[in-house]
Specification:
Helix 2 crosses helix 6 and helix 3 (221-232) crosses helix 6 (274-288). The chain starts with a strand and ends with a helix. It is globular and about 75 Å long. The protein is α+β, with helices and mostly antiparallel strands. The chain has three domains: 5-103, Pleckstrin-homology domain (PH domain)/Phosphotyrosine-binding domain (PTB) (PH-domain like, Roll); 109-215, Pleckstrin-homology domain (PH domain)/Phosphotyrosine-binding domain (PTB) (PH-domain like), CATH 2.30.29.30; 221-288, Orthogonal Bundle (Arc Repressor Mutant, subunit A), CATH 1.10.10. It contains six helices and 18 strands.
Length: 289
């Protein structure tokens, strides 16, 4: 490879070009144009433009007896859809995931509407072009109309669908995230379905970590009531407006919510954290259904 290498490490992998079902050990090299999996028996070269999907930690059924912590790539060569599965020790897989997504999406021109909603209120924000940048758990957007960022640890929901942007129906991502205690919604569309799918997968992997943290939490009815009250007030509420009964009992519940990372103090107000937003959203949905 004559181009600059952005990742180079040793791991185990398997592709369709490798004889037999068992993975081989070799060298994994990534440039801004291609991924090369090289071993003693040969090599597999995957153009980055051929990669359509990435998954982390989910091993294909046929490979489960051989792999544990993996990254799987779906790609197409001459119309033939194939799969590469990569495993490495330490934190290599996680670092490789970040570098790979950056290489695939960095500098991409997108169309954005931000914020499309603040709380539940639809805004009159316009649609404009922006350049996408991935940096340490943050999506950054920069365009002529300004710049903004989405901290991926604050994402509470996202969905793919078709939305009208600038008078045209476009395949888009709708991303809900917390910003200083307020839920905001951003609409993003990319130039093609493959790029949109890759960005959606990246968000899904980051969002999954929030959901896993929430799944381990136990929330009492009293705690849920407070979370719903803050949520109903738009994500933040003055402490004096919330405390109406026994102050000491209320403080015990509030302290428990703080310790669980579901609320934060902002001056004289209480605000939902991203985890708190996810918890209360799930509770509200379960009640409505």
């Amino acid at each position: 490879m004559s181009e600059d290498i952005v990742a180079d490490f040793v791991g185990r992998f398997h592709t369709a070009s490798i004889a037999g079902a068992e993975p081989v050990t070799g060298r994994i090299l990534l440039s801004k144009r291609r991924l090369v999996l090289a071993h003693d028996g040969g090599k597999t070269t995957i153009p980055l433009s051929a990669i359509s999907d990435i998954n982390v930690g989910t091993v294909p059924p046929s490979m489960r007896e051989f792999f544990s912590d993996t990254i799987s790539l779906a790609y197409s060569i001459d119309g033939d859809r194939q799969m590469a599965v990569i495993e490495s020790g330490g934190e290599n897989v996680d670092r490789f995931k970040t570098v790979l997504f950056k290489t695939l999406l960095q500098g991409q021109t997108v169309r954005v509407k931000h914020p499309a909603k603040v709380g539940g209120r639809v805004t009159d924000a316009g649609v404009h072009n922006a350049t996408l940048k991935l940096a340490s758990g943050v999506l950054r957007f920069r365009g002529r109309k300004g710049r903004f960022s989405i901290d991926l640890s604050t994402v509470t929901d996202f969905a793919r669908g078709t939305r009208e942007l600038a008078g045209t129906d476009r395949p888009s991502l709708t991303v809900t995230h917390m910003d200083d205690g307020t839920a905001k919604t951003t609409l993003v569309t990319l130039p093609n379905g493959r790029k949109l799918n890759l960005l959606a997968r990246y968000l899904q992997l980051e969002y999954r970590s929030v959901m896993e943290a929430v799944a381990d939490l136990s929330v009492s009815p009293e705690e849920t009531e407070i979370l719903v009250s803050i949520y109903s007030a738009g994500g933040n509420v003055a402490l004096g407006d919330l405390v109406t009964g026994d102050v000491a009992s209320m403080q015990v519940v509030l302290d428990a919510l703080r310790q669980k990372g579901l609320i934060n103090d902002r001056g004289s107000e209480l605000v939902l954290t991203p985890k708190g937003q996810v918890v209360v959203s799930e509770r509200v949905e379960s009640v409505n259904t």
